[in-house]
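Hi everyone,

Forwarding the result from last night's run.
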Amino acid sequence: MPQLIQSERAGKDGKLAVGCSAAVFDESKERILLIRRADNGKWAVPGGYMEPGENFSEACAREVYEETGLQVEVKRLISIYTNPHLLLEYPDGNRWQLVILHFEAKMLDGYFRPSNESTAISFFNLTEIKNLEMGPLDRFRITDSFANQEKPIVRDEFG
């Protein structure tokens, strides 16, 4: 598990890490797909870091597939997140300021399949989500997803 370092402009002491995550809704658009993370047991939207040579859509679709078993098509950008005052420090010494692009994605095919990154997968409505244990960034992403804004939301600070 990474350690969270929070101080004025802590991000300058690390490198940028670009991540992609997905809001996958059910057909009624009243419930959103969440995974229970294997590393900390908290609920989250599926997502992770981009790999060299990928574009945003490929990274997002790969992460959803790896964590859920579902194939998705990226439809639109919902929101962008970063915080220059937060730094993740991993046990190997790597330090990262996150830049996250959060997309809406449509299910195409597949079936729920937990992985080494997820222990459970399910759809939840907003009322059910209030009682789930999750981090603040995932709460922002879920709130922004249900807001259904036409233009992407930019959050220059979170956490």
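The chain has three helices and ten strands.

Cheers,
N.
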